[in-house]
Amino acid sequence: MIDRPIRRHRASEPPSMRRRGAHRTARWSRTTAAVAAAAIALATLSATPAHAATVQEVAVSQGGYSAGAYKTASVVADGAVGGSTCRILQGGTVVVPSCTLLDRGATWGKRVYVVDFTSFATVGTGYTLEVGGVASPPFDIATNVWEGYTDEMTAFYRLQRAGVASEDVYPDGYSSIAPSEKIFHGAGHLDDAASADGTEHYDLTGGWYDAGDYGKYAGNQWVGGQIAITYLRHGDTPAVAFDGDDNGVPDLVDEAVFGSEYLIRFAEEFDGALYDIKGSGGFQHPDKHTDNIVGTADDRRISGLGVGGSAKAAGTLAATARAIAFAIDNGHLDPSVVTEYEGIAALAESTALTYYDYAVANQSGPIGSYSTRAGIANSLLYAQVQLHLLTGETAYRSAAETTIAGSSFTVLSSTNYWDMGPLSMAELYPVATASGKTNIQRYLKQQLDYVLSSTDDTPYGVVDQFKNFGVNEPHASYMADTLRYYELFGDQRALRAVLKGMYWMMGNNPWNTSWVSGVGRDSVRFLHTRLDEEAQSQTGTGVVLPGALVSGPNATDPLDPTSGMPWYEDRPVWQDSGQQWRYNEYSISIQAGFLYSIFGLTAVGDAPSSTGTPPVALTVTSPLPGDYVTGDVTVFAQSGSSLTNHAIGPNWTPMTSSGGVSTGTFNVDALAPFTTARVDVRGTMASGAYSYSSTHYRVAPPLPTPSTPLLYDGFGKDGVFGMQGYTWVNWYNNHAGVGSVTNVTEDGRTAAKFFQNPATAMSQAKFQPWHHSIDARGYGFLSLTMKSPSPNNRVRIDVTDGVHNYKLSGNTPVAVPNAWTDYDFDLTAFPDLDLSKLKIVLWLQQTADTDGTLFVDDVELTNKASGTAPTLMGTGFSPSSASATTPVTFTTTYTDADGQAPHVVQLVVDGVIKTMTAVSASDTNVIDGKAYAVTLTLPRGPHTYSVRTTDTTSGVVSTTPVAGPTIP
Q1: Residue 521 sits in which domain range?
Q2: Which GO terms describe its biological process (predicted)?
Q3: Do 561 and 660 sit in the same domain of this protein?
Q4: Are residues 84 and 194 in the same domain?
Q5: Model confidence pLDDT, tens digit, residues 673-713
């Protein structure tokens, strides 16, 4: 280790460095000559030979296919593979000797082909699709493949039940996919729950654990109604009305009643008010989280009043009462339990009215967790519809239709707890008034247009809504809504979209992963759940929770903001304990839409589906997913002449259209570096319906200069790590003791409070920003502002790239004074350190067995000013005119009087950043000018460009934006 000095005061630029600019004009003639030489060099560049394309993945629905249904798979390659052998095998036997690859172009940087093998309808197991010698995971073809997964859907909710032992509600062999033995647990949280101040106790046991963290939330109580509605819509299909535990009650009714009993218990305590009971504890079974004894200090407390949750509870209870009546009327209940369930239905109805009356009387109160975007009126819509269907009272229908009539289709990213409208409207439609039917169908048709035109952005049939929480939650919700549309109006396009969407979740995706636990050979293993007590052990192998659908791919890797878009990896908790929930989380709400689709498709059977007349295609050609952008960004959209009135969301600002290309701009200056975001566009079809498309982009970090430090964490939910909302963690305590870190306000600053309670003077507490790393290339210093009120406290700052570890602050721990002090630690002292993967480690150690506190603010990556700024000259492009398939080469010449090479030279075209590379790798002299170039194809439309650079010790140098080529 190298002992480096600590620099406490950031140096100003020395006068000798500032005077170097006097020599710049003398070099202009040499620079001009260099530009001419670069042009000659460009003319002689030869094209890089094309490599042989490779098939990387053959992806199928690992859940299988129904014999008479539409069947599709995807082939992912790194280039054109037309002509590759395509066939279907069963074991070693070829059953389909040839199939056709349908080229769908590039998606997410890969060439994608679709294989439609609908005509192959032979029931069997163990099939594989082989393309170019690469085989898919195995899949089955069944008479009705969905019927085989209905038991997993109810098994999931049974295993999420709170307050009961798993084995008591999951009979041996209940589901065809068995749960992992290690997720079975005893009855937990039998002491739910105490009042907010802990002085009273309420009997609030039961309900479902929302996800893997054992919380129970007021705003998610619509889920029980979804289960009841699933039975009501499809219970006349025997495969839907099954009674897997042989208790004389259909299992969907069992589950709806279990959820409703929790709500009844809550109403008995609070007369319609509904609260959250949040999760707590580590990766342990729920029976170990508390002592299960009422009145002790570990009783969980209520929090977060949710009037929206009360309204949703009313809807769920009414739907459950309806489901019980349906079961009795259709002879689905054993006669021995009819009287009991009639009583449950009556109590559910009366309690639904209690919740409804409370919600109506308290509409000015907090909407609460899992809030609907249109407010409490939207939550009440769900209750009004279900109460009308239960009681027949027209006042509920009138109230619901009034809300529906005033609803505009503005929600473009919806799960049902954000927008109860589509579910409620589909439920009301059969009994709505004539005008109500018109309004409902118009709204639901708009949603179908959105789903169809959003899922055609890629060949995979997924709703194009990637963000920092997996796409499967909104996607599964949309699939349920789309299936309901098919059930109401018979639009085969809707059924086709649902089938493709289900295949996506079961493996037809570029990761070749089934995100449904236990379904398929390559299904997700490392679910984010505290039921897996080995989740944080490197020897853990994950768990199977039958049928659990995880949230799936994010816009980017939460541990690496520079990763590709979109991103997914089945990463265990021990590798990513802070962020794993963003992509491997499951929940009762994520599952709800998936459950409805499984049961609905079971009832649909082999009904025909078709693409029909698809929405007019709308394609965003720039920016593309993964592009880094800066400043004003131009969106390019193409649709030919079939769409008019193009606009950019979310406010639908009109775009400028010419020659079948529409352009519009948005600005990203207010967004933090590495923010990933989505921009939506839409156009209007001749029918008046909209066609939508989306694209995702990433906000570029500032170029590393002395005046543009990169904030890593300001401890106020700002900075590359800080904006994720996490505190740092105490990973380890050497020689015993404990540590903790909290975000606080200190002297008016948002800061982190690092605390150590040592066991001895040898104790060391290790703190890190979880497993997060940062690309620190171009920066010379790690800078922190710190103070410590503890005289015995000592601090050490380490850095690592996963291979090398260095004591950045030196071998001797630092004594920090009780006054805010700036520290700059020299990163350049460690040339072997890979700054693209920089991880920060902070250690506390006390010189005596006394507590120590350290306050830290503004962890930044910084540079110091020196020398003169570089120049950019001779910037241009060729050829002067081109097509969308003709490469355009942009050139510039970089000159630096101090001989400093550029950190990077970037072309900024329409706000999108492209890295330029040296024309001659052997030219290392930048004093007399060095040429840089980049060659790319541009989408149709008019373009604007500039070039920017920095030498890291002076400010950003940028050319003036000018008009570039217009691509016809």
Answers
A1: 147-604
A2: polysaccharide catabolic process
A3: no
A4: no
A5: 999 999 999 999 999 999 999 999 999 999 999 999 999 99
